Amino acid sequence: MKKNIKFRFNPEKLIYERIEHSFGHRFKSFFNTLLLALFLSIVLFFCYYYFFDSPKEERLRQENATMALQYELLNEQVKDIQAVMNDLQDRDDNLYRVVFQADPIPYAVRKGEIGGVNRYERLQGMSNADIMIETSKNIDHLAREVYLQSKSYDKIVDLAINHETKLKHIPAIQPVLNKDLTRVASGYGRRIDPIYHRLKMHEGMDFTAPIGTEVFVTGNGVVTFAGWQQGYGNIVKVDHGFGYETRYAHLSRYKVKVGQKVSRGDVIAFVGNTGKSTGPHLHYEVRYKGEAQNPHNYYFLDLSPEEYDLMVQLSNNAGQVLD
Ligand SMILES: [Zn+2]
């Protein structure tokens, strides 16, 4: 190793003099150099640390990027499933529930906010927090909607089972056979009273037919009245459940008792001319929750479209009622 020898020019003696350093001075110099080297190393290390990744960091960074991408994919998939869910909900509200006359589930119930504390707090501040929170929220909402939808289907199944029973009970045929009809004398609505000759609400439909013509009960039910009533003459009333009642008036006679169960199509009575009546006919009423309905909406089982049109036309003529 080459020895580090330094000289200094002496202008008085005009010679170069060798500079002798003490051990302390040399040690200090060495130590300073060492400190400088250390300082530079540290600076370099931090520069490297900040501007370049270690292999481990590089791997983590890549994993993080993959994970963010994976979250985005998941989120897209959740959105696709949500679209299918929306379609199911739409069909539930606008088809199944309409068929079974049930109210749709309110939007606020289906899409309601999931309450409580901030469920996603633990995710905040993490890298990719936004996409993680969004995905978690979407999945939570979807889970809730799936639960509600499955409950709704349970309800629809109940309604469907009940609906079959209901369909058997709702009045759905004419109370007198078509071939026995002379004509439908008058329908439901404001008509001229046959006795007082004033406009009066006619709460049923009059079927003109010979005395003794068979009268059929129009839906399954229970007889709640069979006897004489002022104005109606001999009358049979049948409770069909689900809010429906039918009345058969001006009968010549009846063959059912109060409390008797009847099935659609059973002969319960015979056409007559009793009570406030101006000719042999059946006065037929359909009531829903106590309110008189237009019976021509309740013959959907046994009339062809042409027969139905004819019946509506006949019953809508403002001719005299037989009451
Ligand atoms: Zn009438």
Describe the structure.
The structure is a single chain. The chain is α+β, with helices and mostly antiparallel strands. It folds into three domains: 7-51; 62-169; 178-316, Glucose Permease (Domain IIA) (Distorted Sandwich). Helices cover 41% and strands 22% of the residues. The protein contains five helices and 15 strands. It has helices spanning 23-51, 55-99, 107-110, 129-169, 305-316; strands at 7-10, 15-18, 183-186, 189-192, 199-202, 205-208, 214-216, 221-229, 233-241, 244-251, 253-254, 261-262, 267-270, 281-288, 291-293. The strands form four sheets. Strands 3, 6, 8, 9, 10, 12, 14 and 15 form an eight-stranded antiparallel β-sheet that branches. Helix 2 runs parallel beside helix 4. The longest helix is centred in the N-terminal third of the chain and has 45 residues, at 55-99. The N and C termini lie far apart (137 Å). 21% of the residues are buried. The mean pLDDT is 87. It binds zinc ion. Zinc ion (ZN) binds at residues 202, 204, 206, 283, 321-323. The site of zinc ion has 7 residues, from loops.
